[in-house]
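Deliverable D5.2: sample structural annotation.
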Amino acid sequence: HFPPKSMIRGSSEALRPSADAHQSPQAMSTSSRVALARAACLLGCVLVAGGLSLKNTGTQRRPDTLSRRDALVNGVAKGAALAGLLQTKRPALADEGDLVDVYFGSGCFWHTQHEFVMLEKKLLGRDGTKLTARTGYAGGKKQGDAGRVCYHNLQGIADYGRLGHAEAVALQIPRQSIGDFANLYFEMFVKYQIPGMDVYDRADPMDKGPEYRSIIGLPGGMESPLFPAIEKANNGLMKLVAGAGNEPDTLLKRLVYVMDSNAFPFHVAEVYHQFHNDFQSPPYGKAYNNYRNILFDEGVLKSTGCPDTV
């Protein structure tokens, strides 16, 4: 099992989510941030998956940089189990009838959330409690007791991996904007070269397992009226397949599972997973990290009862 991804806070801070204290990065375009994520991956590192050696074309990763999973394992000795998982209450927005709930996942959800938050701000003019991008879990066939789906925890309660879920980011966006968000999603895939072929895949291949598979959630799945916009944004880059739940990892398969979000709903992750810095990118800054405090203080994020606190 694994402790929370963020540093486990002391009991004096347990009632309020803590913002990561980092300096703000320089403003970057989406392509620049994706390029940085690519550069953080291993140049010449060999990832064995399906008997193939995968080498990405970015800059070599520092030897002291751990994969997210490795960092979590190493952090076990730094803290103790905490109590309380938080979920999202969507903010009331204008023109509710024009909004649709969707989710996207591919690898670690921290970087994905940041990219979608930036697009919400730029395209839709949202900020603060109006932001709807949330990290969480989806695509599994089961839930824990009381409907809980939790991050890996020392008690093994409602573990999202054991329940068949993948990490994803949910949004509530205007229907006419689905193409813009889908375009961004497919831009996040990285080109890798392996003997005899090129592969497009997630930017963090060191995080391996079904929890990091690529998924898209739409009401109705591939039968959704939104699906043509997904196909257009994909433009043949990835194979889009109807998901049936509990799928294996998509690493090296150039594949995205399209889920019916009515049958496979999204489960919001703990508050410490919201607006979090990513291991592969420069720190996103205190203003970004502080969104979790703002949403918590405004009652937008509430406890759902999983083992770890905010």
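Annotation notes: The two ends are 18 Å apart (CA to CA). Confidence is low (pLDDT under 50) at residues 1-28, 30-67, 69-96.
The annotation will be released with the project's public dataset once the embargo ends.
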